[in-house]
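cron nightly-structures :: item 1 of 1
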Amino acid sequence: MIQENFFADRQEMIESLADEIEDFVFAEVDPAAPQGSPLPLLLFSGGSTPIPLFEALNAREPSPAAFAQVGLVDERCVPADHKDSNLRLLQQHLMTGIGQALPLYADGQQDQAQALAAYQTALNQGPSLAVLGMGSDAHTASIFPRLETTAALLDPDNPNDLASNQPLNAPHRRVTWTLAGLAKIDRWYLHIEGAAKRAIYEAAKSGDPIAAPIAAFINHPTKTLNVYWCP
């Protein structure tokens, strides 16, 4: 199921989506509540598209990110200071002066287990929201089309909320939420921009999820995908 929110102006779209996230957080959290109270979980995608959204949220007083556990939809298996790290994007553009986002990738088996456990704990503690992106190949999170892993990552009965994946035509191994894991997130948003992405999105409405993974989210039988688009 989908709820479409199309805007002619990019800044208007960014502020509207930021309003949605702010309202979600502060409907759940009293800024005056004592430290240690359960916090909502916010998951964001990487890449350049969400940077203006990150900066809009960071600029708000108070920023909703300061009253949430903030993490990632997917991550490249690179150090946190690597130029391709999604965590680095969050820290530079959203979490500036606020705190630390939850790493999704950690170098070392024990550290990786602890990182994934932190996400499971956050998911179980409070309400959650995910802002997804979409690539030019119709992938979302790090669920890529036509891989041997695609069907498993889109399997609604997959017992794993998080999994690793290796794209064929992009650098770095990934850690990603599966469709089954994301189905446990309370609210879904899709943030896309430009005529080309709009065309990919429209085609995916009737597409095969193996060829266009975003189709599994557009046509999910129980979840609503709130789509935010501007030219």
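cron nightly-structures :: done
DSSP finds eight helices and nine strands in the chain.
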